[in-house]
Amino acid sequence: MRRPVITARAAATFEPVGRSVAQARAFVRDTLQGWGYGDIVDDAVVLTSELVTNAVVHAGTAADVLCLREESGVRISVADRYPEREIPLQNTGRVLVHPDREGGRGLLLCGALAARWGVEYSPDRKYVWFRLDLPERPAGTRAAGPALPVDALPVADHRVRVAVVQIDRGGCISAWNDDATGLFGYEAEQVVGKPLTDIAAWPHTPGTGTGIAEALRLSRWEGSYGVRGADGRVLPVYASHLRVRDADGEASTVCLLVRDHERAVLQSPTRTPAPDAASQTSRADGRPSDPFEVFIGSPAPDDLDGLLQRTVERARDMLDGDAAYLLLATDDETELEVRASTGLPSARQRFARVPVETGSGRYGSARMPSVHEDLTAVPGAVPLLNGTGMRSVVTVPLKVEGRLTGSLGVAAESAGRYTNEEALHLQFAADRIALAVERARLTELEKLRRGSLSFLVEASDLLAGTLDRDQTLALMAQMTVPTLATWCAVYTVADQASEPELSYVLHEDEDRIDGLKTLLLKVDPPEPVPTPGARVWTAPTDAAHDAALRTSLRSLGLGDSARPSTGPGASLATASAVGGETVVLPLVARNRVIGMLTLGKPTEEHFRQEILELAEDLSRRAALALDNARLYSERTAISQSLQRSLLPPELPDVPNVEVEVIYRAAGEGNEVGGDFYDLFPIRDGAYGFAIGDVCGTGPEAAAVTGLARHALRLLAREGFGGPAVLERLNAAILDEGARSRFLTLLYGELWPQEDGSALLKVVCAGHPLPLRLRQDGSVEPAAEPQPLLGVMDDLELYEQTVTLDPGDVLLCVTDGVTERREGTRMLGDDGLTDVLTMCTGLTAGAVAARVLRAVERFAAEPASDDMAILAMRVPEIPTTTQQ
Fold it and tell me: Per-residue b/e over 690-709, b at no fewer than 16 CB within 10 Å?
């Protein structure tokens, strides 16, 4: 077998950086076009791009590209410095590369596109080479169609007339040749100076929006329409328009027209796109290649982002572009969202939104293919490319069953790179991937919706689990960061007349929270607008950028050095943290704006619409939870204030008597229940004390508590004795009617004596008997039981006198102490007596504390009844030592 003769060679080395892939494509394209091998340029560029990507991106080494021109084709090799000896085998039924590997996919393309290919190894390099054969064509031609029998050729008249009509910039005919007269019957002088629209019958195809005036302004245009002849009949013609300008810069359009059935004379031949050509090849196992797999690569990414990123990279390589992007349409097809890009600042563009219809006509809609030869001539024609340095762009729609699902674009830094031919090429690829993209998008949406439902259920549970305002604010922020946003700020509005107040700030980086809070406090808060949905708020971003600029200038000595600075790092970090999109969602509860939920992204990032919709659902739930917490806090504050009014003020100091009180109200949020106590001065040298228990707990019992405590003080200070005080209190309770409650009450009067003892007169109306602890450790009741209050009208009560000697203790408790239960066991009077017996020599405070500890330890469950403990002790008289 004769070795091929090499007639030319070109070589280049590319560094292991991402930009090298584009440089390698340009090198191969320029080399092959210079050799006159334009027919295989596209396939060579695609294969080179994939192999160089494997080298510089995946292997991480420099890539050596060598092009060898041979008599019947070209051989290209790509070498990297990572000689992994893994030779893929063909015709074995094995998958060439593992689906999870990034590298190696170029070998699949080699097998699909190249005539021959292989892998060679040296001690320090791995070479992947492929050979592309030139198509056999007659010598001396650069493009040719296949030889056809005469009966297969298109039919034309005996004389083919090509009308040449020139249109000036005003749309009027300025030139008219003889063939135009022969076709349409008008002499030149009859039509020159008249608008073309006077004789053109332009078809109005629904959905295109392209009129004849717009077609005449395009750089190139081909298509069919009608021309009304001198006889009044409309002649269908096929036209090719070319926009030109003369030496003076005056623009005009040259129109070439033939009869519609002779369109082959003017119609540009359609070049078969490279992926389509590849689809005619067979895989190594003999099965036909899938065009989708050839374009995307096999195996195709199983996630939407991976599929979209692979798509833009393949589209860029296919058209040898400098950048590419893919946008997906929203459900209502009114906007397009950037989901993948290459060669563009993706962080700035990702999830940015542009309208589907940006203007009238075909070139203002994403629903039709379009080619912009020079964006500098039409500023703003493609807003997505503003400021990127791209000059020419071709865009095509992605459609599934006639519905717009997205848009694919390829751009180049030089003008005039793309024509209708490239648009057809790209549209062919877009049609092949549109269904796969839509399936992946729907799968992602389904996963997102499931995740959203789970997120909202969890959020609802967390928000419903607290009625504390501050905790609710913290939960709101913690649920959004970092799940929905990079940072979050919650503003609250006290009432309609109040300004929004910054209540909580959270950033995923805790070191940024202080700087972010400082920044937000310097800007005016967002307006509390009740309109539902997220609205963009630019104030934080603008303020951050201004602060960063001023800090940078001061660090360079160009600003006001007298003003303090936190350093360039802090301001620049804060600007980066809030430099992206910021949105505000109203917190509306019970038809009132009670705050705003502010979400932000870092520099140049945007929110996805699905995330904003999820945030809106969360804001509604959070607003109700926050308002419930507010109402609960207000009512709790009112309740606690009223309850505190039922408790006695600070206990007075009783001469020569230690007094200690412990009070526990059952029920969450209760400070006062059915049990109560009091100690107050009656007159000089006399003090009243009381401990009681109203039947039941909660607010109803607390109401009777207030009545009893205030009545006791008033009646005692009027000079009534113990029995008279309780009898009048009994009458007051019965007067409450249905609101009355049974009341057990121990009331007494205390007179400290000069000898160090204390005299007590007590009345025990249905209450647990007070216990007296003597110095010798004996315990005995200090009163006798009498009827409780609130039951009968006529009571005959009497008081008993008790003297507490120095060292004695009087313990008074409510039934919450004696009736403490653990299963069938109860502490009872005997248990309390046993506890008190062990308190000899303790102070009043220590006695009360030991009783409480015994009650708490008696049962594992929390107490279900109110509890009050009142301990009074007469101190021992200190003895003096005589010298």
Answer: bbbbbebbeeebbbbbbbbb
Backbone angles phi, psi at 143, to 5 degrees: -155, 140
Residue 136 exposed, middle or buried by CB count within 10 Å (0-12, 13-18, 19+): exposed
Residues β-bridged to residue 175: 166
Query: What are the respective helix, strand and coil percentages of the chain, to the nearest 5?
Result: 35, 25, 40
CB 707 within 8 A of CB 732: yes
- Quick check: bond before 482 cis, omega within 30? yes
Rounded to an integer, what distance in angstroms lies between the CA atom of residue 847 and that of residue 802?
20
* Burial 533-565, CB ≥16 within 10 A → b, else e: ebeebebbbebbbebbebbbebeeeeeeeeeeb
> Can you tell me the distance from the alpha carbon of 17 to that of 63, in angstroms, rounded to the nearest whole number?
10
Concatenate the DSSP letters of all residues of 748-774 into one string: EEEEE-TTS-EEEEEEEESSPPPEEE-
Residue pair 330/349 in contact by the 8 Å Cβ criterion = no
120 phi and psi angles, rounded to 5 deg: -125, 150
Instruction: Give the count of beta carbons closer than 10 Å to the beta carbon of residue 152.
Output: 8
**pLDDT at 702 > cutoff 80:** no
At 689, which helix (H) or strand (E)? strand 686-694
DSSP 622-666: HHHHHHHHHHHHHHHHHHHHHHHHHS--SPPPPTT-EEEEEEE--
SS3 at position 121:
strand
Q: State how far the Cα of 399 lies from the Cα of 426, in Å rounded to an integer.
A: 13
Q: Say if residues 256 and 240 touch (Cβ distance below 8 Å).
A: yes
Instruction: Please list, in sequence order, all residues whose beta carbon lies within 8 angstroms of the beta carbon of residue 513, skipping any fewer than 6 positions away.
Output: 505, 506, 507
Single out the residue of 217, 117, 208, 227 nearest to residue 161, CA to CA. Answer: 227
Backbone angles phi, psi at 321, to 5 degrees: -90, 170
Q: What is the Cα–Cα distance from 237 to 184, expressed in whole angstroms?
A: 11
Q: How many whole angstroms separate alpha carbon 430 and alpha carbon 425?
A: 9
Structural element, H or E, at residue 514: helix 513-522
Residue type, 4: P
118: phi then psi, degrees, rounded to nearest 5:
-170, 175
* CB of 540 closer than 8 Å to CB of 599: no
Judged against a pLDDT cut of 80, whether residue 512 lies above it is answered with yes
**3-class DSSP assignment, residue 523:** coil
Residue type for 539, please?
Answer: A
Task: State how far the alpha carbon of 190 is from the alpha carbons of 173, 177, 181, 195, 196, in Å.
Answer: 10, 12, 10, 12, 12
Q: What is the pLDDT of residue 766?
A: 92
Q: What is the pLDDT of residues 672-692, one digit of tens each?
A: 566 888 999 998 889 999 999
Give 798's contacts (C-beta < 8 A, 6+ positions apart). Answer: 723, 763, 786
Distance CA 607, CA 581 (A): 7
Q: Taking the CB of residue 466, how many other CB atoms lie within 10 A of it?
A: 16
Both tokens assigned to 277: 């050509």
Q: Which residues contact 111 (CB under 8 A, 6 or more apart)?
A: 90, 96, 117, 283, 284
Under DSSP, the state recorded for 136 is: P
Q: Facing residues of 530 across strands? A: none
Q: Which residue has the tokens 């005299």?
A: 759
pTM over 0.70: no
In angstroms, the CA 432 to CA 294 distance is 10
Q: What's the Cα-to-Cα distance from 179 to each of 164, 183, 189, 334, rounded to whole Å? A: 7, 6, 14, 47
Residue 372 backbone phi and psi in degrees, to 5 = -110, 115
Residues 807-847: tens digit of each pLDDT:
999 999 998 899 888 888 899 999 999 999 999 999 999 99
pLDDT in tens, 230-279: 998 999 999 999 888 888 888 899 999 999 888 888 887 654 444 443 34
